[in-house]
Sequence to fold (351 residues):
Amino acid sequence: MTRERLRVGIVSIIVGFAACSVAHAQSGSGPALDSGVKYDWLAEGADLRLDYGWGRQDNGGGGGNGDAEERVGSTGDETGTDPRDFSSKLMPYYRFDELKNGVKSHSLVLFGMYALSAEMAITYEVPLKYVDYEDAIPKSFGGPLSGAPLPVGPSLPGFGTGGSDFDPDGDEFGLGDANFRFFYKPKSWGRSFDAPFGPKPKLTTSWMFGAEVTVPTHTDDVLGDDVVVLSPMVVFVVDTPTMGFFAMMNFFDFGVYRDNDEKYVQRYRGRWFLMQPLSKPGPELLDGLYLLPEFQPIYDFHENHFSFWVGPEFGKILSPGRIAYVKPGWGVDPEGGDREFTFEVGFRFFF
Fold:
């Protein structure tokens, strides 16, 4: 009963955040999505940063189009990829994961951000998952093992290893673990400096601090971990002279509560991004393209295990506040429960 109440409560909170974002947009307190002249990419005589739609103003405030300037906490990011952009948005996505040990997972994820102010924001994430683990069961045992843990390695969070009775068909469908992130961006830590080259005269740096909380809302042990994970977070972002940015998101995971049969959680997770615009925003097919390679080093202190994953995101601005992307990914020399191949497709909607 306690697990059911927790699950219902967490999902209700996440749906509430999503509803608040939509309501905020519809109430008129936020900018209209039909931006008209304000989003004239090719306006004659426009400032170079605004004309390209990718940059930040010298003061670290709005850039890009007029809508972005009006969004609470926005930095002018038009792709939804800049961690500094504290503006409300929905970012649902589908992801396929294949682990080295044969486990396959399909996740449909409700993901979004709610801006509390220009300095504070919350993200929420809840997955609906289908996990196929039939190929991961050792053949010498003759099929799925009742009450035995799956051979999932220590490096990847979000794949359960608990000891419930598994489905005889070797698969499971249901809700995964919910995730919240709390961001704080102190203005006094931001810096601006002259660009050594390129079209942007000024570049900025930013620091952010916060925490991530992962809560066990899964409906089956295969779909998540019976561990409450608290992850202090430190983020550093710097502009690049080529209209992009480099970001380092660093998480330090600690299991603050776990069932007796669950594994210890003590690990470092890095999410490092290099965003590069490929073409300026506009109405043509090849306008508004960008490339965002992501690198994820993960080190599990308890298991003394290191894994590394890389995934290049390729996206396009479809229209103001509407972005679509695809993101394949590969594990580098994966072992056991490490990711071998992933594929993600998603959308981002600004409010």
Observations:
- The longest helix spans residues 2-26.
- The chain has one domain: 2-350.
- The helical segments are 2-26, 48-52, 66-70.
- The CA atoms of residues 279 and 289 lie 5 Å apart.
